[in-house]
Amino acid sequence: MKISKLTLAIATVLGAGATSGAFAMDLYVDTKTKQIYAEPGRGRELMGSFEKVQSATAKPAVKAEDQAEIKAIREDLALKDNAIKALEEHAKEETAPGKAHVKLDDGIHFATNDGNFTAGINGRLQVDSQTNVTDRVATATGPNPNNQLADGMSIRRARLGVEGTFFKSSFYKFEYDFTRGNGTTGAGVTDAFIGYNFSKPFSIKFGAFKEPFSLEEATSNRYITFIQRNQAVDTFVDDLNTYKMGIGANYATDRWQVATSLQTEPVGANGASNSATGTNGNANRNGSSGDTNWEVNARVTGMPWMESKTKFLHVGTSGSYINVNNNYLADGSALRSGGISYAHGLNNNVDRTNIVNTGNLTSGNSRTGNQANHLTRFGAESALVYGPFSAQGEYIATNVTGRGYDNETLDGYYGYVTYFLTGESRNYKSKTGAWDRLKPNRNFDMKGGWGAWELAAGYDALDLNTLNIKGGRTSTAKFGVNWYPNSHVRVMANWVHALDINTGAVANTTSRAFNNADLDAIETRVQLDW
């Protein structure tokens, strides 16, 4: 019978051997039954003294080939033992604080292996175009500029930044947009903050960051449905430069989120904006009197119905109180800086000509002129996702108070629907209560992959007319097609049609020329972000 390798190895390693021993024993026989016993008894006769020998099983003979195999096994075990020790030492080195790794699956990310420090390089590039198919506007006269909207192309955004964590709980972000501010110092800064996560749901941050207001504003421009944000959001939030200095707090769970902030002015002027506060350019306050603007903001969102990540209802509300800084020359005869104005194009993308325009709401003499002192904003939002279908709408109102203004309310609203022909659903991020990156079910390739295709249609209205404010009124219908070849590239096309343009009472001559204008524009965007 062949000895198994394991038995042979164990026998050899342990050096199993045999032992033996011998001793004398008396035996007795029953005279009747002839049975043999080891003890005397009635009817038993002594047979004699006998010697008992006990020995172990003989050691099996080990063949020469088995001895060679045992030697090989021993050598293999020694090599494995050395390998295990080397792996233990390598693992210890790799988990040391100074060791880091790079991950490239969703951008460029660096992290130490102990998780204490992370850094990610982010960026985006948006190349836009605008073609005005119909552009019937009142002809300009005299020295006035041409009222026609221009066709063309532009780099809408070109941003580069870094964000990450240190010692796990602290976080930071810095981002610069090379298209903002027209060269104004600091104007290109968007996010520039540091923060701390007290727990998974609660965090605070300090620096420059977005106001917590509006669903569409909380959504990064990388993920909005149409190329340009809707008019009310652009005019009352985004165009004022929503990246302002201050302190903010956020509390978010899987189903609801609360964000608040106390903020002042932005780092620099936003040269791409239409609406503006006059102090936007006074980043360091040199050469200008008066304190900075300041504001208190809050936004609360939740999902009262959630069947799954692809079937849910989102609702939310936002509120702000803004104290406006008004500055004058020493004699009080003219406005030096400050105040606020609201102006906007018609979902314009490349040509951002102001079609509605309130002009500066603080004007004239410091003692008798109109003066906008406080703004109160209110917003209501809702969105529904049901598989590939979604619907979204918002209402935003801004109340102006001060000398010459008796709770004047400017407002606007929008609504739109979308549908993914390829079956995807909009991706929702509960931490921000806003939309996040969409990932196609199958990326575009030359083997049958189409990427993700989305259709969108919406209505958009803005009213800047009140009893004492004449900024104009507009409404549009728009349609969009979005193609996502993969999760980081998007191609967009929008058609914007003016339904109503009422600017007959606007003081600005350019805006007034667009009264009852017939406008149609086709806008496109090619976007890369990481």
Task: Provide a descriptive summary of the structure in words.
- The strands form 5 sheets. Strands 6-7-8-9-10-11-12-14-15-20-21-22-25-26-27-28 form a 16-stranded antiparallel beta barrel. A 3-stranded antiparallel beta sheet has the order 2-1-3, with no helix packed on it. Strands 13-18-19 form a 3-stranded antiparallel beta sheet.
- The protein has 2 domains: 26-50, no CATH class; 113-529, Porin (Beta Barrel), CATH 2.40.160.10.
- With 530 residues, it is mostly beta strands.
- Helix 1 (5-14) crosses helix 2.
- A hairpin with a 4-residue loop joins strand 5 and strand 6 (117-136).
- The protein contains 5 helices and 28 strands.
- It has helices at 5-14, 64-94, 215-218, 231-236, 509-513; strands spanning 20-30, 36-37, 44-55, 100-103, 108-112, 117-136, 152-166, 170-177, 189-197, 202-210, 243-252, 256-263, 276-277, 294-308, 311-323, 326-328, 335-338, 340-344, 356-360, 371-386, 389-403, 405-420, 428-429, 434-435, 452-465, 470-486, 489-502, 518-529.
- The protein is 11% helix and 51% strand.
- The radius of gyration is 40 Å and the shape is elongated.
- Residues 268-290 have a biased composition (Low complexity).
- Residues 267-295 are annotated as: Disordered.
- Keywords: Signal.
- Residues 1-24 form the signal peptide.
- This is Phosphate-selective porin O and P.
